[in-house]
Amino acid sequence: MLTAAVLGISAFITSGISTITGMGGSIIFLAIMLVLLPPHIAIPLHAAVQIISNGSRISLFWRSICWKTCLILCIPAVVGIVIGRQFVTALNPNVIRIMLALFILFSVYFPTSKNRETWPRWSFAIAGGIGGTITMLIGAIDPIIAPFFLHSRLRKEELIATKACCQAIIHFMKIIGFGTLGFTFQEHVGMITFLGLLVIVGSYVGQHLLQRISERHFVIAFKTLLTLTALQLIFIT
After folding, report:
1. Nearest to residue 44, comparing CAs of 35, 54, 53, 34?
2. Whether the model pTM is above 0.85
3. Per the CB 3.0–4.6 Å rule, which of 25, 33, 54, 149 could disulfide with 164?
4. Do the beta carbons of residue 33 and residue 40 sit within 8 Å?
5. What digits encode the pLDDT tens for the residues 64-106?
6. Distance between terminal CA atoms of the chain?
7. Distance (Å, rounded) from C-alpha 131 to C-alpha 74?
8. Helix, strand, or coil here: 112?
9. Helix and strand totals (H; E) in the chain
């Protein structure tokens, strides 16, 4: 009962964070789940709940989705998930986390120019391929693709909407991957439904707060959470 309560509160808060800043909530929620649940249960359940969480943001910002960017990212991601599935138990996730953390820090603090419009759109294909592969190993997709969105031309609503759409598709493919590995989602329908309802509420609350944030403060918050995410990835190893 206590575990469900902590997860429920965490789901609500972290969903709101992701709606306000575009990232951060997913990996924070995953970290909490990994403390309370075994990894082989936490990671697949996290994917299921994140489909609902990202789906709620898609419904809120539907008109702001950049479909071309989403397509460029998601097609290679599907291939990456198929590849990553083959190495779920073969690679050391701690090494991958450290490499990912260093990449995040480099992308945030060593951009090629003073503005965010530095990386070409085709770079999202790289994000998708790498992200799809690594997410099967460490559980989170957020910190992998977020740096590419940071260096895009997308406004805050477009960033949140497009990133949510990409993540929902990738998490859906992950569920298929975990299903083929033998994970039974039907045994956890109650928990998924409970957490799903709370992430939806969190997204709606976050939307109202987002309207009060300027583009400049949004970017600052995005960079701050990217930095904290990188440090968290290093710390949990």
Report:
1. 34
2. no
3. 54
4. no
5. 999 999 999 999 998 988 888 777 666 666 776 777 677 777 7
6. 29
7. 10
8. coil
9. 10, 0
